[in-house]
Design goal:
With 615 residues, the protein is α+β, with helices and mostly antiparallel strands. 37% of the residues lie in helices and 20% in strands. The protein folds into two domains: 372 residues, Glycosyltransferase; 225 residues, Beta-galactosidase, Chain A, domain 5 (Distorted Sandwich), CATH 2.70.98. Helix 5 runs parallel beside helix 7 and helix 9 runs parallel beside helix 12. It comes from uncultured Bacillota bacterium.
Length: 615
């Protein structure tokens, strides 16, 4: 994808380097003062949340708690809050230019410099010489842990120096020097001198998945380097290294551009790839334009529009959230740079559904995009949403839509995907922007999500997706457990997908075949047809996850504005309200229910049909 970007072109781009082509520093008052009152109010409102913010020590016990309990929030929550406060106060100071926020900004900068590590406890293995090996419950003082959050912290501090350097020097020139020393020690030197961090992709091991870590860490390393390092040789080397890693990352993507990590990670996968390319484009004055003639990049960008449902709701396969807090302005600019009208349409809808025009983020690059693209995006007219079918052939995902009616999506794929759930054949149904049956997404991460107990976690299991169980067996994890012969087709105004999901289940389940065929019959219904053959007469039960309070009726179960119809003579229907953690509660504020339909008889050959009808 980037093979045309030769060393000469990189050097030409660097020779045209001008960081003033990025975002304005606090001294460039014209650009800050010309922002609309709406944008200024949003930025100041974000900062107001931290008016009374007090720094608290990030203790050894807090760090070690992860290794005792498996919970990540004890250390991560106050750690992230510190960085979010710094981001909010820095941009507010650029708006106000009164010095009001500077003392607290300086305190936070100093406190972050004093931290023993910038990494998360759960990543206490991202070391240069023994990658992917846990070394204990404390960071090694002689080795730099270079993880997602260390890199994000480095980029944040680099942006604060870029925006406020002269103001900070008025407090003390030693403050900026201290920050620069930490950036060199923790980010720049490890990035330039070491090739063995797994996410760099110079050294690969069997079983290691290439995922969002590569563009996420690379984008932050690149920002830190280009914002604070003046040595041309180092910067050129850093750009070369970034493009090497990104080339490898993009090569793992299918031609349809689909993100197997799900929409929730798109922002840090294809989205961080965009951050890298957009940064290079900006800082080089357009000389390094890696967006041109890049159809695969356009598809990787457009994936997020493909799996959009409405407003800020997305199909939440894998470890995703059904509600994704993307910065609309970033989606907008990515759409512009890849000439993708569907992304611009999505950005407009996202922007108009947000409670604030500029959501706070501690990724400063994205936050500044939000600030300086806000007025342009606000002026964009609303565009009609495409109702064309989406078939991501390589990723095995379909999305069917109709105007003011049903939305349907289903996935095939395999059970060895990045951030995998055992969910081959899963589907979701919405009616008039109301969720009927859903993929619940993922809850708060714990140590259980990354080890032998991953598929004992509720959100990862087949039994908590819209899928059958046979003889008590759920699907099995691993790439070899996959859908077979997935096919998309249309008949008149109706759209269908069919697949055999037998390959996703272990052999001991005793399934010979299981053909699941789903269709959107526009203007009428969504239907799911099941045909199964088994080695012996088998016990079958189906599960459906819904945020609607189930109500039994003569046809089946009422789920809000739709009814799930089935042959009530064949099933015993039960349901339970699920226990949700804080992350899931934030998405499904009215709770979630799991409906279980147990077949009254055992079957050696099965045929069932489920139909979703509007009420």
């Amino acid at each position: 994808m980037f093979e045309h970007c030769t060393l000469k072109k990189i050097k030409d781009g660097y020779s045209n380097r001008n960081t003033s082509k990025l975002f304005p520093t606090i001294e460039e008052r014209k650009k800050w003062d010309s922002l609309s009152d709406e944008v200024k109010r949003a930025v100041l409102s974000n900062a107001k949340r931290y008016e009374d913010y007090e720094l608290h020590v990030l203790t050894l016990s807090m760090y070690m708690d992860y290794f005792k309990t498996g919970g990540r929030q004890t250390y991560e929550s106050p750690n992230f809050e510190r960085r979010e406060a710094l981001s909010a106060l820095t941009v507010a100071e650029c708006i106000e230019n009164k010095g009001e926020y500077l003392p607290k900004i300086a305190d936070i900068l100093w406190a972050i410099c004093e931290e023993s590590t910038w990494s998360a406890p759960s990543h206490n293995y991202v070391l240069p010489d023994n990658a992917d090996v846990h070394v204990g419950c404390l960071p090694d003082p002689d080795k730099q842990i270079f993880d997602l959050f260390a890199s994000e912290t480095g980029a944040l501090l680099a942006w604060v120096l870029y925006l406020l350097r002269k103001k900070l020097d008025e407090i003390s020139p030693l403050l900026a020097r201290r920050v620069e020393k930490e950036l060199q020690t923790r980010i720049i030197r490890p990035y330039l001198e070491c090739d063995t961090y797994l996410w760099m992709l110079y050294v690969l091991y069997d079983g290691v998945l290439i995922n969002n870590w590569t563009p996420w860490c690379t984008s932050n390393a690149l920002m830190t380097l280009l914002l604070t390092e003046n040595d041309e040789e180092k910067c050129v080397k850093g750009i070369e290294k970034a493009l090497f890693s990104l080339e490898k990352f993009v090569a793992t993507y299918p031609e349809d551009g689909g993100c197997d990590e799900g929409p929730g990670y798109w922002n840090k996968a294809a989205g961080s790839l965009f951050d890298c390319l957009y940064l290079l484009w900006m800082v080089s004055g357009g000389v390094l334009n890696l967006f041109e003639n890049n159809p695969k990049l356009k598809k990787m960008a457009g994936y997020i529009a493909d799996v959009h449902i409405y407003e800020d709701h997305f199909v939440s396969y894998a470890d995703g959230d059904e509600k994704c807090g993307f910065m609309p302005q970033k989606v907008y600019q990515f759409g512009k740079m890849t000439d993708n009208p569907s992304m611009i349409s999505l950005a407009v809808e996202l922007y108009r559904s947000m409670p604030t025009p500029v959501p706070l983020q501690w990724n400063m690059f994205n936050y500044l995009q939000g600030v300086f693209l806000c007025d342009e995006l606000a002026a964009e007219p609303e565009r009609p949403k495409s109702l064309e079918d989406v078939y991501l052939k390589d990723l095995n995902i379909v999305c069917f839509r109709e105007e003011n009616g049903f939305f349907f999506s289903a996935k095939g794929g395999h059970n060895g995907e990045s951030h995998n759930h055992t969910d081959v054949g899963n589907f979701v149904v919405y009616y008039k922007n109301t969720p009927i049956v859903v993929d619940m997404g993922v809850g708060n991460y714990t140590s259980r999500h990354w080890g032998a107990e991953r598929y004992k976690v509720m959100t990862q299991r087949t039994a908590y997706h819209n899928l059958p169980m046979v003889n008590g067996y759920e699907q099995a994890p691993g790439e070899e457990f996959a859908a077979r012969e997935m096919r998309y087709f249309t008949e008149g105004d109706s759209s269908y997908v069919t697949m055999d999901i037998v390959g996703a289940y272990p052999a001991k389940a005793g399934i010979h075949s299981w053909q699941r065929t789903c269709g959107l019959i526009r203007g009428k219904m969504v239907q799911v047809e099941e045909k199964g053959e088994f080695a012996v007469s088998s016990e079958i039960e189906y599960h459906f996850i819904t945020p609607q309070q189930p109500v039994l009726c003569a046809e089946g179960v009422i789920l809000g504005s739709a009814v799930l119809c089935y042959d009530i003579n064949n099933f015993v229907c039960e349901w339970e309200e699920l226990e949700l953690d804080i992350r899931l509660q934030g998405v499904w504020q009215n709770g979630l229910y799991r409906i279980t339909l147990k077949c009254k008889e055992k079957y050696k050959t099965l045929y069932e049909k489920f139909v979703f009808l509007p009420i």
